[in-house]
Structure formats: C-alpha cells, structure tokens
Amino acid sequence: MDTYIADFIDFVTASPSSFHAADEVQRRLIDAGFKSQNETEDWDASPGGHVMVRDGAVMAWWVPADASEDSAFRVVGSHTDSPGFKVKPDPTYGAAGFQQVGVEVYGGVLLNSWLDRELGVAGRVMTKDGRQLLASTGPVMRIPQLAIHMDRKANEGLTLDRQTHTAPVIAVGLPGSSILDAVAEDAGIAADDIIGHDLISFDTQVPRTFGIADQFLASGRLDNLASVYASLVALLEAVDHLESEGHSTDILVLAAFDHEEVGSATRSGAQGPILEDVLTRTAGALGASAENYAQMLARSSVVSADGGHSVHPNYTEKHDPVAQPVLGAGPVLKINANQRYATDAVGAALWARACHAANVPTQTFVSNNRQPCGSTIGPATSVRLGMTTVDVGISMLSMHSAREMAHVEDLSTFARALGAYYIGA
Fold it and tell me: Counting Cβ atoms within 10 Å, is residue 232 exposed (0-12), middle (13-18) or buried (19+)?
C-alpha cells in the first residue's frame, strides 16, 4: 500500500491538468509496452496494448491473442478533469495597482476552498506555427480572502461573487504582467507566440498522508485522478496476469474522459464519440461486421469509476440514515433511483463478484431523499453504447475542494477490485 500511495502522489503531481493526466497515462503505458495509436492512421487491433490521446482524454485497449468478433469489451471509465478556474482568453485583469488573472469557474467548485492558497496554472497552449505544448507553472497566483476586520459576518456565512471575488493576484506595481508570461516560460516559448490556450488552476501544495496513523491522504484532484490511476494500475496488472497465467478473449479498455465536471458533451467527453470510436474501430480491425459489433456490445460491460461520498461526521443528517459509507471500509457501489448513476441489479452483481474475487470489502451509497446526488460518466456511456454499466468509486470527504481527502486503504483496494473485473470476475 505504501508503494501504491507513493506512486499515486507522483502521478497526481505529474497531472496538474487533464492534458497532463492523459499524457502521463500514455507515457506510463508506452513504458509498459503499449503502442501509440494515431487516429489518422489505420487502426491497430493486433495482440497487445494500444493507447491514444485525444485532447485531455486517453483511451487504451489490450487485445488478447485470440480476440475475434466473438470477444467482449471490459471497460473501466473515469475522467481526467477536476473543478477549478479556467483562464480566460485575455486574462489581463487588475484593480488598485494589482495585476490579476481573469478566470472562469470550471465545474462545481467549492469556492471558499481555493482562497488563500498558492496556485499554479497548467494545460495546453497552441503556437503560431501550429504546435501544441503542455505547460505547468509553479505557485504564481493567489485568491486572498477579505480580512475579518472588513467582513465581521464572514463566519456567519461567507458569500463569494463568482466574478468579482475570485480573480487571483499575480503581481502588484508591475503593469503589463500576464499569467501567460509564466506559462510561456515553462513551455520554452515567447508569450506572444501563444495564440490559443486551455489552462486550469491547481493547488501547488503536494499530496501528503496525515492523521495519527497516516490513514488519510490529502490531495488536489482526487476526484477523479484516484480512479484514473486505479484503472491504470488495474489494467497493467491484469495484462501481466492474463499474459502469463490466464486465458481470456475479452478486450480490456481504459477510458479516461475529459470534461465530466461540465457535462461531458465534448468530443473528448463521455457524451462524445471517443469511446465508441475506439470500440468500433477495434471491432472492425478484428473483422467484425455491424451485426458482430452489436453482439460484442451486448456481451460487454462498463465500470464507471468516480468519487463517492463518505458520511461526514459533522453532517450525518445529510446522508441516508442506513447507507452511510465511511472512509477506509472499501469502495462504494453508487445507486440512484433517478438514474443519476447507471447502476442496476445486473451491474451491482457484477461489482459484487469483482470485490469478492479481489477479497475487497464494498459499501453502498444512496442519497438522502432531501439531498440530490451528482452524476458521472456512467449514464452518458450507458446511453451512448447500451452496455451494462455500474457506478462505483472510493469514498471521500471535501469533494470538489481544492484539496480533497480519502483513506489510503481505499485507494489501493479499489485498484484490486478493478483488476479483478478486468481479469473476468
């Protein structure tokens, strides 16, 4: 477990944006022997591992030696993006002699958690000569909170205006300074060479364990890099097992989408075509007809892996009185009558088999009727492809904070359960 957590911390640190996360997953898979797939070239479904990146999403598929049109897909889906502040096209803001950054709120941000933290920005930039470069700054900005002396009622309920109260400070008395200067320096180009960018804020404080027994991990972007990393570890361990000891005709797929936090309706999101493209082109390369492909989907399944809610000890009334998953007691099965999660009885049984095979405890999350839940890539994937889908994840506290909290055991046992699913449980 210690090795798992140490490497996960390295993974999070290397993944300050969705683009970096996708790139890091691809890098690790290629190091493990996977082949990079260019979407503009003929599709490769030869035996072994393959990986492709589209924008901030990454897809990987492992094809067994005897795969055919009679195979099925086993998919673990997650997402690479996290809530934060996206840099505006022209970020040059300022007031009262300060230089600031114009930002838009991205996703369901817990706004107050971003105050008084040293922040960086990361993502991709496009250059005048058509290059796409990744960049990540150090701690270059901060959103300072108004002092209690000027807001005596702040502790009775802090209200932040999303436009006027969230512009980070980057300098004072340095007119003309821009966040793009720092981005360009990291990318090794001139600031005026940037003609387009997708940049998101991140907390520069590194993840760390804490608690009297080091049971907990505090980290930015646990939602949902915890699932991306778990699916990566599970895939690599399942491939090792199947290549050396097992036999399977199932095609294993890692699908880490972008833009889940804003609805998934993009070309690299779960509502878009990216996973369907991978599955149809893989099936076609194996010689499957349209009828064969439909049969393959009918045999297939998706585990939608995303963050879940632990019961909060200070707000137990916000949770269902019976279903109260807690940190450290295993990953959660997520169920919602209104289909905000895609789990049904068939998917629940699939997940129970995987956890039993991995000797991993599991818990159930269902919302208090007065407290509607969020959603995941599960329903979007299920609707798009018609495959049996189950929603699961690790429980956490402070979800959508700049710095979230999970139990170290849940992080590693989740990967074991996903691995058992991949292997065929």
Answer: buried
